[in-house]
Amino acid sequence: MIPFNKPYMTGKELWYVSQAHANGHLAGDGIFTKKCSSWLEQRIGCRKALLTHSCTAALEMAAILVHIVPGDEIIMPSYTFVSTANAFVLRGGVPVFVDIRQDTLNIDETLIEAAITPKTRAIVAVHYAGVSCEMDTIMAIAERHNLLVIEDAAQGIMSSYKGRPLGSIGHLGALSFHETKNIISGEGGALLVNDPCYAEQAEIIREKGTNRSLFFRGQVDKYTWVDFGSSYLPSELIAAFLWAQMEDADSITRRRLDIWDVYHKNFEAVEQREKIRRPIVPPDCIHNAHMYYLLLPDLDRRTSFITAMREKGIGTVFHYVPLDSSPMGSKWGRKSGTLTQTQLLSDQLVRLPLWLGLEESQAEVIQHIIAEL
């Protein structure tokens, strides 16, 4: 039995959790939270990194920070997780769904400008599978039209675009540390602030609308309710677990890339027989081996593939159902143009097991089974 995912532990997580308890600080923003935030600021190069209890929370904070009001339009791909749209719908925003590229499955930057209207407020760049969107083009479009760019880098930790870490390019970014991601804490996320004008308000929103962070830094003599916000902090136990993962982040990434490379090499011959298509990583992008997927010819063959793999004890899954075809997506959002690639590729994609502990021999077994299907 080879499961689709198996959460990885470095060996230090429970020790750090016990240290957090010994420190007598289990609520948010303790020593381990500060360690994690500093690590993100140094590795990613953002102005401020704020740990959150999920990437969903980070996206919701971003929607509040950029002052989304009812009727504002936010351009994004339909092929993404529901949180990408939900964060803005909660503020009354209207997701505008744009088709994806055939190669990377990221938003097609050549279609963004046609989706812009006087109501457009922001562009959300979702870096699918840890492979960057075409950020130079997206940032140039945003500048021409006075729009904000929010990077949904939920899958993008340790990935980069032209040497710049994902999450550091747009005005704001969001990361996920969910158990299915590369660096994990069970649940968890982070808001990355690149535009300094959002730094102080981000702290206030995260602290239930209070200026508590300013108080603890000695910048005010007491803290009080100064804006709207909510409780977006993770507990110190989550941060302690995450710190063990961050300490080992380079090793985790290298080992995941090794597994990804085994898959990619072994599936080359299968791709040449036109039975599948492998992932494509543009030259300007360094990815983090977040996932390995295959594109099958059509939905029927993908369904048969997943069933056949399950019968052989191998966990494989499809990914997103396009948001534009969902009940809420059709109610609250709208499409810009036809989403031909979105529908086609979402019906074809299947994800293979990729987790630390998956051995090269197991990856080769998977490849041989697939080649025989």
Textual characterization of the structure:
By secondary structure, the chain is α/β, with parallel strands linked by helices. It folds into 2 domains: 13-247, Type I PLP-dependent aspartate aminotransferase-like (Major domain) (Aspartate Aminotransferase, domain 2); 249-372, Aspartate Aminotransferase, domain 1. Helices cover 39% and strands 14% of the residues. It contains 15 helices and 13 strands. It has helices at 13-22, 31-44, 55-65, 82-89, 112-115, 135-144, 199-206, 212-216, 236-247, 249-266, 268-272, 299-311, 327-332, 340-348, 360-372; strands spanning 48-52, 73-77, 94-98, 120-126, 148-152, 160-161, 164-165, 172-176, 189-193, 285-286, 292-295, 334-335, 349-352. The strands form 3 sheets. The protein has an 8-stranded mixed sheet with strand order 1-9-8-5-4-2-3-12, with helices on both faces. It has a 3-stranded antiparallel sheet with strand order 7-6-10, with no helix packed on it. The longest helix is centred in the C-terminal third of the chain and has 18 residues, at 249-266. It is globular. The two termini are 18 Å apart.
